[in-house]
Amino acid sequence: DMRMLIGNLDTSVLAFFVWAACYLTVLINQQQMAREAETSQLSQKIQQLELQALSHQLNPHFTFNALNSVCALLEAERYDDAEIMSEQLATFLRYSLSKSPDSLVQLADELSAINAYLQLQKTRFGDKLKVNWQIDESLKQQRIPALLLQPLVENAIKYAVATRQQGATITIGGTRRQNSVHLQVSDDGPGSELAAPAQSSGVGLDNIRNRLLQHFGADARLDIGATPQGFTVDISLPWQSA
């Protein structure tokens, strides 16, 4: 009887392990299928973003790096991070591609797109890229030309963050003084020691000047300041809320 009991027990234990193995196999297969489906969906998103970027020829180098970063996250099975990054890229591209340079937008919308852009760049630069926001809340409804500040942030990353091992802090500020608004993008990078000549003629500055002139005439201006402690671009324009 004892032998029969032990035999039955062994059979039960064996059956349990067989059942557990089958259950785990099914569970793992389901998880793998879910991951493959998620990867497929993200890949489709990436392809759509590639087509959008190519059709508009928008920042191809930046877009290529961002898409590569998403692919690297997928390969590392960091699916949540990959999804967040692809959503940030979609947010930035959607804003960039849907806004005409001649259109006026709320400052809040521009800042939201810049934040998505900066989060994407932090994937590349990590702690080298630090951001300091100093925007007066009363300015969020201010009307500005679309993509006015983003090229300035791009310049700061290119000439201040990327050129130094320790990186740099980018400050994005905005204040209202009576009937005028002052928007500022500055960094604590090499400034006049290294980057100022190139940064002064960098991405989009002439374009920004022309667009400010077109929208606001002599009531708007763009000033550049460079010191050994950093580089600053200050834009002043009339107060113009929605």
What does this structure look like?
By secondary structure, the protein is an alpha+beta fold. The chain has 2 domains: 2-96, no CATH class; 104-238, Histidine kinase-like ATPase, C-terminal domain (Heat Shock Protein 90, 2-Layer Sandwich), CATH 3.30.565.10. 57% of the residues lie in helices and 19% in strands. The protein is built from 7 helices and 7 strands. It has helices spanning 2-56, 60-75, 79-98, 107-125, 150-161, 196-200, 205-216; strands at residues 104-106, 129-135, 143-145, 168-177, 180-187, 221-227, 230-238. The strands form 2 sheets. The protein has a 5-stranded mixed β-sheet. The protein has a two-stranded antiparallel sheet with strand order 1-3. Helix 1 (2-56) packs antiparallel against helix 2 (60-75), helix 3 (79-98) packs across helix 4 (107-125) and helix 4 runs parallel beside helix 5 (150-161). The radius of gyration is 26 Å and the shape is elongated.
